[in-house]
Structure to design on (1087 residues):
């Protein structure tokens, strides 16, 4: 019996959805709940699991086509239920015969949606949304339009639970998180492994890996919501800060040797991999302590120094870039930093980052070097005032004591906001980072 | 004693009728004009370790116990370097080293405090006394009775000195109590009570001497009623029109300073020249004290919130 | 470690301070031979003698005033109010003498006024009051209200050692009803620090005194419904631990302010203003107060029961707030 696959309603105010990608071809065998296609809506991008087992008989809506909610997008042949398949269930539940229109806002499988039942409409008529100071603050920090957030509080109020769930679902679709004017960081991840860029780390944002097939002179591809946001943020950051970059060449021999010597023992003892990231974070933290203006923000005509040193470390996911934050990085020792990096990266990859994980950063480290770039000039992650780009660590011929030597070198590029940081300060900061790395003396084990 | 009487009279004149009218002193101004003998006759006998709890009518007690005259004026003028650093005015001046505990405006509150002071003398087996001053109006307050009772029950060395100056603000004694002499209250609580001429400094001296001796000997408290007259308003802003003029004139004739001067001149303990010289000295001393006080800075506004609590970094010690 | 009742802990604390510092002494009505109306000072007259355990006439004002005088002379008096309801008789000496001396002319006034307060024992209007706010509102005083036996000992010791006038509110309902492991050694609990009695994440309940136990009972009940209460015990009302209050509010984003004292002018109002001023953006719901109504404490049991906050009332308030 054929089963219809329909465009689900992802949120009660959503009226349509776009098919982004078919994960199965016509003729493929599909298991029940197996991911069948990817869609994108105003609220969220989601993977849609198959409502039944069977063979994908017909694809009725092509990729990049937008259709109204409940439109049949494909048909499956085989055992299955009647045509009235409801909106996408969560993994565990069977599709029931319940009519489509009663479907509750089904949470996307990759996110934790609003789990508690009832009814109150997420649409806030008249644009007036009941919430609370806390909710409004969180919404402002994440640039969330509250009218789009379903409220389950009293009288349809958007509660803390609701906004956090909404944001988690957004970030699971990998909106580059972080406060107010969100990341302008160059879309590059930190190396999870040593120097040679790891093959297979997917390139950054959604859409850039989509195959471009020309049937006409131009191909118009509308931006996904996440791409739109990134675009906006990049421009906004450039508009806000007086971007200047300074590049330092740092000899990493000592660190490389140390890492090579202790990596195995470190992993054995602590259960986590020893990467270059903790070295970079520790050196950065030390330099920030000496030059706290690198850890500040500009508000109007005030420089707002931040006491807490929360280092954001850019991580690439298949779906995009995200910058989890190591909170109080200055209060952690080497192992503490390494652990934090590992845990955050893990959570990022399994889409379990919480709101707190991506908020509150005061300085960002990114790694254009992972794809081989010598150095990049990253865009500052607002509202911070500096960002450190780490190039590829490579062996190069350098001059030492008037002789040519082969050393492991890296270019570190600091983009900083010249509104409040002058070149001299930035360079002194970088000199400190360089010195720490070149004269590394903190025990790793 | 004459020196102190005259110094007090002249200082308070300066305060009430000069500095206040020049705007150098603001707020309430209370002086003990005409009642100077009470403070002088008692304070002059105090020994080291004794504690005085004078009232606002006992300027001389502060001078006699050792508060520099300039500091007293500085307090009146609300200066930041005065004894209360501008927090208090008038004679609310305290100094534990000199054995001085000031009143609070709810008069009568110091009587129980005097009991507490005397209690520590008892606990420490010292022969010191606490001498507390209060007016006849104050005796209507409960604290006075509780304190007198407590002092008698515990046999504390407290000398209760009542300055009966006939008026409590505008309230004459007839409206304050019904007995003729307040000293009957002494025996009512189990302690000796006497009524004396408060304008006779020698009488004051004698009565207080006896009471102090009793206290030091472990005989407990005494009550001394000093009858006098308030020769000016309750405060500087009070014209005291409720006091009949004839009464004022009559009482003026009993002025304690004039009486002592007369006695001393008669007994040739003092010459006219000596008197003039004394007055000259007093004027000079007061001039210097006022000049000193006037030169002191006013306190900084922000210090208002300091020193509320006593702790290891006590603001008062700075 | 020995287990002691709240009352025994207070007795031990006072006893230890009397032994440790000869300038500590006691004044009060019936505290000597009789050992105090609640027997807090039992045995002390025999041990420390008449000079240091003084039975006074019924003169709260004179007693407090005398304590002030003694404190000025370098002693550390501890005054017992037979019931804190009677502290009003000594009010003037407390707020005009004791509270203001240090500010006005510098010396320390290290005295403690302690006594049983609170309702729940059919005491009627004059043996049940919670009048702490009279003194919370008076600058220069410190106000303390322990809720556990451990704290009662540590706080009475700290209060006696404090160089300021401290008003120490013992809750009579807790005297014999609660016990704790109370170490025999010389420990103090610092003034001005709250304690989190129970960690939670949904609603912070800020409270003190006997109501701490009420809040904990409510928390157990609410746990079954999936509402996690955090219970913060202020322990000191002046100076109170602002950081602890704000921390819990920022963590839970919803708050209930609970006290046995009557509503208007109660501590909850002060805390609500603090929270609204400093944690407005952390609030996910209105600030809720659970307090007694604005009446004197009635005697007859059904009236007193209606009057007092209890676990059921806290549970109801929490349910409503959780659903907001």
């Amino acid at each position: 019996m054929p089963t219809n696959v329909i465009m689900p309603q992802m949120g009660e105010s959503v009226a349509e959805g776009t098919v982004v990608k078919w994960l199965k071809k016509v003729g493929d065998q599909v298991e029940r709940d197996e991911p069948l296609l990817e869609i994108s809506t105003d609220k969220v991008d989601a993977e849609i699991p198959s409502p039944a087992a069977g063979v994908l008989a017909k694809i009725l809506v092509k990729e990049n086509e937008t259709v109204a909610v409940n439109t049949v997008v494909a048909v499956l042949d085989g055992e299955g239920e009647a045509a009235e398949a409801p909106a996408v269930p969560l993994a565990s539940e069977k599709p029931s015969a319940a009519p489509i229109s009663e479907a509750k806002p089904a949470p996307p499988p990759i996110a934790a949606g609003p789990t508690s039942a009832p009814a109150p409409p997420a649409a806030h008529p008249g644009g007036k949304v009941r919430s609370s100071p806390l909710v409004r603050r969180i919404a402002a920090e994440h640039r969330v339009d509250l009218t789009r957030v379903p409220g389950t509080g009293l009288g349809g109020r958007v509660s803390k639970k609701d906004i956090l769930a909404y944001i988690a679902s957004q970030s699971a679709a990998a909106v580059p998180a972080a406060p107010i004017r969100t990341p302008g960081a160059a879309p590059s991840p930190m190396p999870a492994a040593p120097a040679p860029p790891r093959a297979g780390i997917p390139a950054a944002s959604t859409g850039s890996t989509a195959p471009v097939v020309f049937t006409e002179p131009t191909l118009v591809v509308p931006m996904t919501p996440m791409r739109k946001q990134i675009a906006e943020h990049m421009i906004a950051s450039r508009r806000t800060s007086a971007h200047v970059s300074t590049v330092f060449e740092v000899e990493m021999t000592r660190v490389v040797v140390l890492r090579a010597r202790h990596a195995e023992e470190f992993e054995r003892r602590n259960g986590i991999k020893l990467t270059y990231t903790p070295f970079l974070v520790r050196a950065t933290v030390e330099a920030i302590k000496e030059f706290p203006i690198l850890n500040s923000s500009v508000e109007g005509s005030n420089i707002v120094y931040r006491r807490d040193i929360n280092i954001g470390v850019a991580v690439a996911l298949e779906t995009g870039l995200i910058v989890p934050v190591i909170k109080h990085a200055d209060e952690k020792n080497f192992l503490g930093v390494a652990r934090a990096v590992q845990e955050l990266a893990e959570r990022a990859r399994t889409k379990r980052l919480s709101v707190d994980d991506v908020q509150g950063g005061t300085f960002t480290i990114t790694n254009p070097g992972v794809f081989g770039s010598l150095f990049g000039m990253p865009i500052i992650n607002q509202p911070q005032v500096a960002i450190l780009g780490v190039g590829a660590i490579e062996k190069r011929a350098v001059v030492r004591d008037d002789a040519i030597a082969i050393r492991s070198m890296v270019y570190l590029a600091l983009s900083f906001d010249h509104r409040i940081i002058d070149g001299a300060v930035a360079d002194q900061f970088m000199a400190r980072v360089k010195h720490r790395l070149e004269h590394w003396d903190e025990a790793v084990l | 004693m004459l020196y102190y009487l005259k110094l007090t009279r002249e200082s308070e004149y300066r305060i009430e009728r000069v500095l206040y009218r020049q705007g150098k002193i603001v707020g309430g101004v209370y002086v003990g004009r005409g009642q100077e003998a009470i403070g002088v006759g008692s304070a002059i006998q105090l020994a080291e370790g004794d504690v005085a709890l004078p009232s606002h009518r006992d300027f001389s007690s502060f001078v006699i116990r050792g508060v520099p005259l300039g500091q007293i004026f500085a307090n009146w003028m609300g200066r930041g370097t005065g004894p209360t650093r501008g927090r208090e005015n008038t004679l609310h001046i305290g100094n534990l080293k000199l054995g001085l505990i000031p009143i609070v405006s709810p008069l009568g509150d110091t009587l129980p405090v005097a009991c507490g002071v005397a209690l520590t003398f008892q606990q420490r087996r010292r022969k010191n006394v606490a001498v507390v001053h209060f007016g006849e109006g104050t005796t209507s307050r409960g604290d006075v009775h509780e304190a007198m009772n407590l002092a008698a029950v515990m046999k504390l060395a407290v000398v209760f000195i009542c300055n009966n100056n006939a008026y409590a603000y505008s309230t004459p004694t007839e409206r304050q109590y019904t007995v003729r002499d307040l000293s009957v209250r002494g025996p009512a609580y189990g302690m000796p009570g006497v009524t004396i001429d408060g304008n006779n400094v020698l009488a004051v001296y004698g009565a207080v001497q006896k009471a102090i001796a009793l206290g030091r000997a472990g005989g407990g408290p005494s009550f001394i009623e000093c009858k006098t007259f308030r020769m000016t308003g309750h405060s500087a802003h009070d014209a005291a029109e409720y006091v009949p003029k004839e009464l004022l004139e009559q009482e003026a004739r009993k002025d304690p300073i004039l009486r002592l001067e007369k006695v001393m001149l008669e007994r040739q303990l003092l010459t006219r020249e000596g008197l003039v010289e004394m007055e000259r000295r007093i004027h000079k001393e007061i001039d210097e004290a006022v000049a000193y006080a006037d030169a002191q800075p006013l306190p900084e506004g922000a210090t208002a919130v300091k020193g509320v609590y006593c702790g290891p970094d006590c603001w008062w010690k700075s | 470690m020995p287990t002691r009742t709240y009352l025994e802990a207070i007795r031990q604390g006072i006893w230890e301070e009397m032994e440790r510092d000869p300038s500590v002494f006691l004044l009060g009505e019936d505290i000597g031979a009789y050992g105090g109306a609640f027997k807090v000072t039992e045995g002390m007259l025999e041990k420390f003698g008449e000079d240091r355990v003084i039975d006074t006439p019924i003169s709260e004002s004179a007693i407090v005033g005398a304590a002030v005088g003694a404190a000025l002379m370098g002693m550390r008096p501890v005054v017992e109010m037979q019931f804190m309801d009677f502290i009003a008789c000594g009010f003037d000496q407390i707020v005009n003498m004791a509270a203001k001396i240090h500010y006005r002319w510098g010396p320390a006034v290290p005295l403690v006024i302690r006594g049983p307060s609170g309702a729940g024992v059919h005491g009627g209007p004059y043996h049940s009051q919670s009048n702490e706010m009279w003194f919370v509102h008076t600058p220069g005083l410190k106000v303390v209200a322990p809720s556990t036996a451990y704290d009662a000992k540590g706080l009475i010791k700290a209060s006696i050692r404090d160089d300021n006038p401290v008003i120490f509110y013992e809750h009579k309902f807790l005297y014999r009803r609660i016990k704790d492991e109370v170490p025999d050694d010389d420990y103090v609990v610092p003034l001005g620090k709250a304690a989190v009695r129970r960690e939670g994440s949904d609603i912070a309940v800020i409270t003190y005194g006997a109501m701490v136990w009420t809040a904990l009972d409510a928390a157990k009940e609410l746990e079954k419904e999936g509402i996690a209460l955090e219970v913060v015990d202020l322990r000191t009302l002046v100076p109170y631990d602002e950081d602890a209050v704000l921390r819990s509010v920022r963590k839970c984003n919803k708050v209930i302010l609970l006290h046995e004292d009557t509503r208007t002018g109660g501590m909850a109002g002060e805390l609500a203003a603090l929270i609204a001023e400093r944690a407005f953006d952390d609030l996910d719901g209105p600030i809720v107060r659970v307090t007694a109504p604005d009446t004197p404490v009635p005697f007859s049991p059904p009236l007193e029961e209606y009057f007092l906050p209890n676990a059921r009332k806290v549970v109801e308030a929490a349910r409503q707030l959780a659903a907001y």
User: Anything to note?
Assistant: Chain C touches chain A at residues 253, 280-285, 323-324 (CB under 8 Å). The CA atoms of residues 68 and 98 of chain C lie 6 Å apart. The mean pLDDT of chain C is 96.
